[in-house]
UniProtKB/TrEMBL annotation:
The lineage of its organism: Bacteria, Bacillati, Actinomycetota, Actinomycetes, Kitasatosporales. Keywords: ATP-binding, Cell membrane, Membrane, Metal-binding, Nucleotide-binding, Translocase, Transmembrane, Transmembrane helix. Belongs to the cation transport ATPase (P-type) (TC 3.A.3) family. Type IB subfamily. The keyword Membrane applies. This is Heavy metal translocating P-type ATPase. It is found in: Cell membrane.
């Protein structure tokens, strides 16, 4: 009877849009008490748009857009795609970079039009005017990307990644199931707290500015505190954490690496399905016992 109930649970999951790797996954799903949520692409849509262009010197807008757009055009990061598309819209064609390097968790750097250029959250000194723009954008939950040329910060681009309409409700449902939601992101603390506040995650449960390879360490630390951890993510940068968690849940809208590393896939990328999955496993296993 046990395997039959598990098969039924698995089948019902598939109907709901929850793909379960194997029937045994339902058992670990049931024990989870902490749900770690990746921010970008999981709680937020991950489809960002370029909003503001702010420069230290008046008249530098086109330069900032051209240099940033040229490098970001070569990156697949959602922030990069927003900047490349926005720059192309505003300045037309972009130059090809002479050198390009992706720096996971920080941004991109390379050589454009004979200059060393960085785009992202590299530790450049910011003139006051840009520091204010950056702080204000981040307090509102937008990402501020610094564009520097030869080590001098020229401008700040603001990029917004809208929170998914279903995320706040999903967090309420997870709490109603007795789970503690934790927000985990490589993005900076101010942006992370802005998003956490909007969806109902406690500030004390925000873990920000975490490099991609450190995400799995955060999961392990929570486990060493005696917690049973589910991780929900979408990116290549979440794969190790998804595999290391007691239960890995991938957004079906995310990367193959995340899906392969996970036990469950939420087909529609709707975070409410994480709560549905836990409810389903509890019900399925209650039937057996
Ligand atoms: P998350 O963990 O939220 O999915 P990442 O680890 O991919 O985010 O990136 C962390 C942060 O590094 C981003 O929020 C952004 O500030 C910066 N960043 C990463 N890649 C880029 C890029 N290509 N261009 C600009 N900024 C970037
Ligand atoms: Mg992500």
């Amino acid at each position: 009877a046990t395997p039959t109930a598990l098969m039924v649970g698995t089948g019902r999951g598939a109907q709901l849009g929850i793909l379960i790797k194997g029937p045994e996954v339902l058992e670990s799903t049931r024990r989870v008490d902490t749900v770690v949520l990746d921010k970008t692409g999981t709680v937020t849509t991950g489809r960002m748009a370029l909003q503001g262009v702010h420069t230290a010197q008046e008249g530098d807008e086109k330069d900032v857009l051209r240099l940033a757009g040229a490098l970001e055009h070569a990156s697949e990061h959602p922030i990069a795609q927003a900047i490349a598309a926005g720059a192309q819209d505003r300045v037309g064609s972009l130059p090809a970079p002479e050198r390009f390097e992706n720096v996971p968790g920080l941004g991109v750097r390379g050589r454009v039009e004979g200059h060393e250029v960085t785009v992202g959250r590299f530790p450049d000194a910011l003139p006051d005017v840009l520091g204010r723009v950056k702080a204000e954008a981040e307090a509102e939950g937008r990402t501020a990307v610094v564009v520097a040329r030869d080590g001098v910060a020229l401008g700040v681009l603001t990029v917004a990644d809208p929170i998914k309409e279903t995320s706040a409700e999903a967090v309420r449902e997870l709490r109603a199931l007795g789970l503690t939601p934790v927000l985990l992101t490589g993005d900076n603390r101010a942006v992370a707290e802005g998003v956490a506040g909007a969806v109902g995650i406690d500030v004390g449960d925000v873990i920000a500015e975490v490099l991609p390879e450190e995400k799995v360490d955060v999961v392990r630390r929570l486990q060493s505190e005696g917690r049973t951890v589910a991780m929900v993510g979408d990116g290549v940068n979440d794969a190790a954490a998804l595999a290391g968690a007691d239960l890995g849940l991938a957004m079906g809208t995310g990367t193959d690496a995340a899906i392969e590393a996970s036990d469950l896939t939420l087909v529609r990328g709707d975070l409410r399905m994480a709560a549905d999955a836990i409810r389903l496993s509890r019900r399925t296993l209650a039937t057996i016992k």
